[in-house]
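Below is a filled-in request sheet from our internal design queue. Each sheet records the structural input a requester submitted and the sequence that came back. We keep these sheets so that new team members can see what a complete request looks like end to end.

REQUESTER: design group, bay 2
PRIORITY: normal
MODE: inverse folding
CHAIN LENGTH: 246
BACKBONE (tokenized):
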């Protein structure tokens, strides 16, 4: 995501106006959640059963008086161990480092375009533990080209889509899917920022191995920064500038 140094792109990004799920849900109702290997509570969870995940998320939201639980960028997780799609006999090649952020919220919740753009591609990715229905948007803002990926959608979200269709920031582009169609996870949105799609269509790795993390960290900037979910906005702006090499 390189361009000539410019403040215009940074000024375009209004941290308070960017929503990727139903904008009627106040960000005051968002709460961070830790699903990493360091969360010992998860050792008691049956990761093969989405109902266990669903109950865990619902209880977490209720206990925190929240409607959305978010987090996971570069988080090392054990929950992918259930799927051969992520596993590898070589430890450093096992894919368990999350490259986007997850927003855990009810199925059927509206999913919104983060920025003006167009449909880059879409697909129903049906591997065990995969995204399920997925939409990828392409954005060009003041000469900066990048992509945003929205995974774990409803199957209806892919109906009538056409590559190249234009979308507006804040426009409803999809709805969050039920666990049975979104990889057998509790209902949530996987959101990821991608510089170079590397020729991929309708899919892009959302989880990295330790062996590949340097590349993917550079190609997939921190989505929390763009969404303004960090508390200190000055720190957010400086971090955004660093991530985008501006």
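RETURNED SEQUENCE:
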């Amino acid at each position: 995501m390189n361009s000539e140094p410019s403040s215009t792109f940074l000024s375009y990004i209004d941290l308070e106006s960017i929503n990727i799920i139903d904008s009627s849900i106040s960000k005051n109702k968002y709460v961070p959640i830790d699903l990493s290997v360091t969360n010992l509570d998860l050792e008691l969870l049956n990761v093969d059963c989405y109902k266990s995940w669903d109950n865990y998320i619902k209880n977490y939201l209720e206990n925190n008086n929240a409607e959305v639980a978010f987090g996971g960028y570069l988080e090392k997780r054990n929950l992918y161990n259930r799927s051969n799609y992520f596993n590898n006999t070589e430890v450093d090649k096992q894919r368990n480092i999350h490259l986007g952020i997850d927003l855990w919220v009810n199925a059927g919740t509206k999913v919104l375009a983060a920025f003006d753009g167009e449909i880059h591609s879409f697909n129903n990715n049906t591997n065990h533990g995969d995204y399920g229905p997925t939409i990828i948007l392409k954005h060009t803002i003041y000469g900066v080209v990048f992509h945003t990926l929205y995974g774990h959608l409803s199957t209806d979200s892919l109906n009538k889509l056409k590559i190249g269709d234009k979308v507006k920031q804040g426009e409803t582009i999809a709805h969050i899917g039920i666990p049975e169609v979104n990889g057998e996870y509790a209902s949530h949105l996987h959101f990821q920022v991608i510089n170079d799609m590397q020729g991929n269509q309708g899919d892009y790795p959302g989880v990295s191995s330790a062996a590949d993390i340097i590349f993917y960290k550079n190609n997939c900037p921190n989505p929390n920064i763009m969404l303004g979910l960090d508390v200190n906005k000055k720190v957010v702006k400086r971090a955004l500038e660093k991530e985008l090499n501006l």
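SHEET NOTES:
- The chain has one domain: 8-243.
- The first helix runs from residue 8 to 12.
FILED BY: M.R.
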